[in-house]
Amino acid sequence: xxxxxxxxxxxxxxDSSGEDLPVATPAYGIPVLELGSGLTSAAPxxxxxxxxxxxxxxxAKQYIPLVEGEDCVGIYxxxxxxxxxxxxxxxxGSSCIRVSEVSRYDWEQKYYAGxxxxxxxxxxxxxxxxxxxxxxxxxxxxxxxALIKNFTNTVCDLSFAYFGSNYLGAIDSIGSVFVWExxxxxxxxxxxxxxxxxxxEPGITSMHRLVxxxxxxxxxxxxxxxxxxxxxxxxxxxxxxxxxxxxxNNPKPTSIEGVEGITTVAGHLQDITDLTLSPDSxxxxxxxxxxxxxxxxxxxxxxxxxxxxxIPHGGAALSALAFCDNQQQHNPNYKYWxxxxxxxxxxxxxxxxxxxxxxxxxxxxFAAETDLPDRLSLCFGIDTSGEYLVLGDIHHPLxxxxxxxxxxxxxxCHIIGVNSFALTASVLSFAFYAAGxxxxxxx
Length: 443
Prior knowledge:
mainly beta; 5-stranded antiparallel beta sheet; 2% helix; 42% strand
């Protein structure tokens, strides 16, 4: 979703063999990003060029006067400042980005804490407002369309359970939770079937988030058990919902008190701004406006235990956090939720953490080129491989892709490179289709 009011999606590209390649869909609505032959991915650093780790070592400082170009800039510092550009020639986007417009709508150009666009292997879903708020669903293969209508409140977060799932979850500005299974019928086209509905009583906050527990295939034979677990925020509390249990026992609760399959987590003093679940759904991490992050172990049967708490950004309100787990190819020798990225100041300050030592491994700050630092707002996301962190500039038509390298054996993780791409419109929200380096074709 971009600042010109467009939902855009890019086509698949082919390599020299003629086979379609899965390509990155990081931002600018839902475009496809193809890393061209002029692009390089940074390699893990070693020796004297490696970032310094451990609380006792002096921080290696690095300043990057980022130029608007596609070449990857290597990052070696532990304390890094990246100078942001502006891309004043917004009519000239990068030749490495191809887009196809699928919808046009006048979205308000502002910072969106939640996602208002979602994608899986079949559908694109996004939020628009007509006479009331609606969710538009488009079949990416047939262009068939459908609407989920009659929301009385703003839909503020939207996502599919995972790329191979047709379960779509949404939460509105009073915290009401909805889950549908999006089906396709030869006669009726797209049919969203409501599975869960909970209408919450209005509270004192309009800040609500919804995330799913990542789905990871274990072993070469795959795993048919979807494990539909999601987590939502409600002011200064969070809830973990076992959707399979709720669908079976009480799909339309009038209250969540005592509902089997729902675990309520309380401990923050102020609103929770973001949350994330580990792939095995055992750990919930929550971040708040009071500036702290809390880790919770979800024990099942409605019980949870506080694991750890710290203030990662000197008391600044958190805007995002995400684990760096590889959900595509999990190595059973590596533990889940080993590394975490936190963000503050509308995602302009990032920190990488080890959740074994609880040490900060690296800090990156994006600096505004103008005298108006509050104008710098970035939307944030990490792809399912845990290797690419994408930031879209809300006020300037620029996209940043950061390459993450994790070394589980030595409990190290750091950002080793950054690319900057000029766009033709600013980024308001995005969803991933796939990410990875690919050869770019200009034909």
